[in-house]
């Protein structure tokens, strides 16, 4: 089986993330990782908190904490939420780690040796009120392209255009709010992306036909506009230091690398963190996943569209310029925005439902299923409480949860606490087996293609097939004239429950585990379901003890809907 390296965009350290951030990177990466593991592949799923840069310093200042202490606390808080969502990272690291410092500095030295870094004197915004140069994100103002009045000096959150602070209209300090800004000369390191343009174009051309149209079009747009040399250092107190053995003057001035230089390198750094954290007696080879791994590893990245340029153009340029055989991404799974009633979720403006709030309301599986079933793949998708409650009630409570409950409860009431024997399967069971095998193949095909909405639709169809079978056989009527036939129907339905438990695990892991625990099988080592097993539906034999689990999914009421809208706001229109 193939080795699969999977990374999702690093969540920034300044606060708990919203649902849009979850569905745009970490959650689909987790669903795909779980699926691949079940199919027998070797998988390494790596993520980390992105801890350097201006917002970390500003957030720490607001809380009155040293920035390193703030980041440590925020990392633990984020990790707790991701644990609550059952994200099965192999390792969740930190971009401030010593491993990332070492590898980032190594990359910088190599780029410099190969002629792709240049020291330049530039004119940068200085705030007399703050007594310091202002890095890009310390400058706010109006975007010259779209008119958004809260654009940052590095990128406009609204239109995603990359900016320089001097591009902003009516700029102001993000620290003090002062508009008394000056432009002074300072020195910084520049990555000479213009010299790597042709190599990046050739590399993108080899991959873009396989990538989703969203990822390839963004990469191509950046390349068509031309790659510009960009400063990769900043005047900050917190970041990966410029190595003094290569740039002693800049190191003495306290320069650190720009967060967008060291953050993608943290994918490698976090993998080394994973290796270094191996328990006693276990050896983990981090380098085999990243170095000279083109023929042995398939690397898939998950991210929202605002991160695509950095991962399809800028980081590949960095890796190419290092002139070492570091693994570059094979497939970029890019997502559009999940909106909140048509408006953007926003961490900075606290608009929308945030992941910790979501877990306070309902268990993770409710959110996991809804978000993936409505993932913003081909275009933006909108979160509304009306849509959420309707999806939960129809798909989870009625289609899956009700099927599990009524099959097990009815069988326990009429046949006791063991799976009933019944007769030999007939025409209805044969037809069901063929349909289940067909739908399972469709589900597998969509998961392999990373088409998550279509995969969710195929999974939903699998659940619906069980209900159709149950309605056709109607064991509550069948038992009045044919107890053997009713027992067969229920045994077949119980085998469907076990099949659902196995194949639904990537989407709803906790509920799948509960379904699986309902049956006291002597050996239940199934990681997936073969076509033959889907057709025969015999994995849970007669005589197997079972229990009726608690209700898997509670139906949401009109009162629940109104409470959610009152707490979080409904349609802003």
Automatic annotation (TrEMBL):
Domain Methionyl/Leucyl tRNA synthetase: 4-408
Organism for this UniProt entry: Streptomyces plumbiresistens
Domain of life, per lineage: Bacteria
Annotated Zn(2+) binding sites: 143, 146, 156, 159
Chain sites annotated for binding ATP: 347
Enzyme class: ligase
UniProt GO MF annotations: ligase activity
Main location: cytoplasm
The enzyme's E.C. designation: 6.1.1.10
InterPro entries in the cross-refs: Anticodon_Met, Met-tRNA_ligase_1, Met-tRNA_synth, Methionyl/Leucyl_tRNA_Synth, MetRS_core, MetRS_Zn, Rossmann-like_a/b/a_fold, tRNAsynth_Ia_anticodon-bd
Quaternary structure, from the entry: Monomer.
Entry keyword Electron transport: no
Reactions it catalyzes: tRNA(Met) + L-methionine + ATP = L-methionyl-tRNA(Met) + AMP + diphosphate
Cofactor(s) essential for the protein: Zn(2+)
Gene3D superfamilies xref list: HUPs (3.40.50.620), Isoleucyl-tRNA Synthetase, Domain 1 (1.10.730.10), Methionyl-tRNA synthetase, Zn-domain (2.20.28.20)
Its job: Is required not only for elongation of protein synthesis but also for the initiation of all mRNA translation through initiator tRNA(fMet) aminoacylation.
Cofactor note: Binds 1 zinc ion per subunit.
Listed HAMAP family: Met_tRNA_synth_type1
Motif 'HIGH' region location, chain numbering: 11-21
Stretches assigned to the Methionyl-tRNA synthetase anticodon-binding domain: 419-571
Record keyword Transit peptide present: no
UniProt family annotation: Belongs to the class-I aminoacyl-tRNA synthetase family. MetG type 1 subfamily.
Protein name, per record: Methionine--tRNA ligase
Keyword vocabulary terms for this entry: Aminoacyl-tRNA synthetase, ATP-binding, Cytoplasm, Ligase, Metal-binding, Nucleotide-binding, Protein biosynthesis, Zinc
